[in-house]
Predict the structure.
Amino acid sequence: MNKSDTHLLEIQNLSACYGKEKTVLSHLFLNLAAHETVGLIGLNGAGKTTLFRVLSGLLPSFRADGIFFDGHCVKFRDKAFKTCRYTVFAEDNSFQYFTFGEYLSYVFASYGQKPWDVTELIKGFHFEDHAHVLLKDLSTGNRKKVFLITAFALKPKLLLLDEPVNGLDFQSTEYLYQLISGYKDYGTVLFSSHILESITLTSDRVIVLENGEIRQTFERGQINASDIRKALHNENNV
C-alpha cells in the first residue's frame, strides 16, 4: 500500500499505553514534511518521551490506523524505516563499555555506512578530551554529546531528539542550535524540549502536546514565546 503526498512521515490516529489502563497518547495525527524542523513542547507527562519511544520501535503497546514513510506503509520496526531514523533520548545509559569511537563505528556499521571524519563535530561540542573514555565514565552531558555527535554524523532522513539540550554546557547548546537549524539540508528533525528558547530559535513548526494529544500547532511566522506559553496553560513551567 502506497500513499503519495509530500509528507516524509505520516501517522494516523496513534494511541499508546503502558499496561492496560495507562493511556499516554490518544488519537494523535502527526505529519512531518521532508526537510523541516518540528519542535515538540508540552508540560511533564504530556507524552513527549512516549512518542519518541513509539517512533523508535521501543514501545509495542500502541495502535495506529496508518503509518507512512516516504509514501510507503511501514512499521516502526521495519529495517527500511529503522535505517532512515536515529533517536537521541533524554537519558541513555546503553553501551556503557564502549568508547565514543567504538560506538560510532558500531552505529555506522549497523546503518550500512562507513564512518567519516567527525573532527568538526567533536570540536563543536568540546568533546576532544573525552573521545577515548568509556561511556560509563562520562558525565551526563558528555554522554549526551556521544549520541548527538553520532546523530549529526549519521545524517538520517529522520532525526529524533528527545530533550537534546539537557545536560549540555552553554557553548555546546549554542552549537546544537546551529546544527538543528541547518539540518534541513539533510533531512527532517523532530525534537522535544521544555526550554522555550530551543523551540523558538530553531523550529519551522511547533506542536504543543497536552495529555497525549496535539492541542495546537504553530506554523512558520506564528511562532512566538508568548502564544506558546498561553497554549501550555502555565507560564511558570516554561
